[in-house]
Amino acid sequence: MLQCIKGFKHFGASLQREIIALFSEYVVAAIEDASNSWGLSISFLSIILLPIVGNATKYAGAIIFAFKNKLDITLDVALESAAQIAMFVVEKQCLLI
After folding, report:
1. Where does the Sodium/calcium exchanger membrane region domain lie (predicted)?
2. Which residues of 15-41 are buried (b: 16+ CB within 10 A; e: fewer)?
């Protein structure tokens, strides 16, 4: 019985990898199509625009929590965003050095 469960875990992980790969291909194709139709570079869309749009719900949630005086959640979102930006800047500085 235990072997069956272990095999199922591996099947589940394999299925998850396949689903993530499929979604990744879809995102890449969508970015390429948007780049062609909007006349923007793929780098701009993937480095600048995609993270902003992806985090928009998090920012909206932070604003709602701020209005409800739940500052611990609001500060958490702000610090996570600052850390994300800092990691991007550090990576680019390491490439420039």
Report:
1. 19-89
2. eeeeeeeeeeeeeeeebeebbeeeeee
- 87 and 62 assigned to the same domain: yes
pLDDT at 2: 46
Q: What's the whole-model pTM score?
A: 0.53
Average pLDDT over residues 90-94: 73
Whether 4 is in a domain gets the answer yes
- Residue at 73 is within a domain: yes
Number of domains observed in the structure of the chain: 2
28-74: pLDDT as tens digits: 899 999 999 999 898 888 888 888 887 788 888 889 999 999 988 88
